Amino acid sequence: MKKTTRPNRQEIITFRTGGELVKALDTLAAKEHRTRANLIEWLLTQDTNIERPVSIIALAVSSLYAEIEHAGTADTAQSEFFRGHLAGAKFMLGELRGAVFKDIVLHEVRKRIKKPFPHTIPLAPDGNRYGWDSDADIDGP
At 79, phi and psi to the nearest 5? Predict the structure, then answer.
């Protein structure tokens, strides 16, 4: 990858890639009514911005805590619903942006909510939880 710095603090980045990726980018760019370069810049901006995933996951965690406080227990149908949202958000974030990005986002969520990060292990049919959520804090609900 070749990088050239310009005086206005914008940088030019060039790289080589396969023709299939170029065709896929051109197809996406056309559907988005963007140029290829504008689409790549937008995608890179989205991929490095943590604010949106942090706010979505913080909302799911806050909703779960609000339900637990309201119901007085961590095992209601609504709390399971919020656990499912949280589990899905964490899974998709890890799959789409990678484990390191997910860890950065979860760290920021922990700082914002100032509560233990909850586990997302669902209730088994017998009413118990089995398994381990490596993203959860041990003293979380």
Answer: -65, -35
- Cα 3 to Cα 7, 90, 102, distances in angstroms: 13, 34, 28
Q: How far apart are CA 102 and CA 90, in angstroms?
A: 7
Cα 119 to Cα 82: distance, rounded to the nearest angstrom? 11
Q: Which helix (H) or strand (E) holds 94?
A: helix 77-97
Query: Half-sphere exposure of residue 56, counting CA atoms within 13 Å on the CB side?
Result: 15
| Contact in structure between 1 and 13 (CB atoms under 8 Å) | yes
What pLDDT band is residue 11 in, cutting at 50, 70 and 90?
A: confident
- Res 8: pLDDT: 66
In the chain, where the domains are located: 2-47, 50-141
Binned at pLDDT 50, 70 and 90, residue 86 comes out as: very high
